[in-house]
Write a structure and sequence with these properties.
Layout (H helix, E strand, L loop, with lengths): L17 E2 L7 E8 L9 E8 L7 H12 L18 E4 L2 E4 L12 E4 L6 E3 L2 E2 L2 H9 L20 H5 L18 H6 L5 H12 L7 H8 L6
Parallel strand pairs: 1-3, 2-6
Antiparallel strand pairs: 2-3, 4-5, 4-6, 7-8
The structure holds FE2/S2 (inorganic) cluster (FES).
FE2/S2 (inorganic) cluster binds next to loops.
Length: 225
């Protein structure tokens, strides 16, 4: 499902800039959201032309090329380049995804890149995760126990108990799901959103955790859940 929606501080009336490709091979156009709060100007879309024959296959490769060859002020997050850290999450042609695992050839036409929807924007493609991380901290995402650890031993799980965590522990907290959820757009001050609820369930489902009742009590709320 396409989830395009602009970030919160968006009136796209800034003066657009065009960055032509320095070479002319297989050129693709990218329309990239630009916003610098220090400039006092409204956001704008800049167009970048990239020669795909001189570029890696992923959207992140194109962004790195734009920044290193055309406009060093272009700002975005990235770290692992392997779909592990979650920092390159953004909206590409109306869908949230990781720029490092999204192939340019899977996107049609002029590629429109914006920050994750409905987040405050710090600069260009960098959203402010302060609230998202505060919500994550609120569910106490760590093992909580009351009984003493068995002396000299770990708290063990059976293979079946461990399997209960499959599909939960892998979440990389990129916020792509939460920021494509309309309920989270409208009520993110109260609703925890899919990513944080998944994490909350990850600890409820953990056979070693001994605070299940307290965790459920904390979720018991007309908006939070
Ligand atoms: S750079 Fe780490 S997930 Fe994309």
């Amino acid at each position: 499902m396409a989830t395009f929606s602009l970030p919160k501080n968006s009136k796209i009336t800034g003066k657009a800039r065009h960055h032509a490709a320095p070479t002319q091979g297989k050129v693709r156009k990218f329309k990239v959201y630009r916003y610098d709060p220090d400039s006092g100007q409204n956001p704008r879309y800049d167009t970048f032309e990239i020669d795909l024959e001189q570029c890696g296959p992923m959207v992140l490769d194109a962004l790195i090329k734009m920044k290193s060859e055309q406009d060093p002020t272009l700002t975005f997050r990235r770290s692992c380049r392997e779909g592990i850290c979650g920092s390159c999450a953004m909206n590409m042609n109306g869908r949230n995804g990781l720029a490092c695992t999204t192939a340019i050839e899977d996107l049609s036409g002029e590629v429109r890149i914006t920050p994750l929807p409905h987040m405050e924007v710090i600069k260009d493609l960098v959203p402010d995760f302060t609230h998202f991380y505060a919500q994550y901290a609120s569910i106490r995402p760590w093992l909580q126990t009351v009984t003493p650890t068995p002396s000299g031993k770990e708290r063990l799980q059976s293979p079946e108990q461990r399997e209960q965590l499959d599909g939960l522990y892998e979440c990389i907290l990129c916020a792509g799901c939460s920021t494509s959820c309309p309920s989270y757009w409208w009520n993110s001050d109260k609703f925890l959103g899919p990513a944080i609820l998944l994490q909350a369930y990850r600890w409820l489902a953990d056979s070693r955790d001994e605070m299940t009742g307290e965790r459920l009590d904390e979720l018991e709320d007309p908006f939070r859940l």
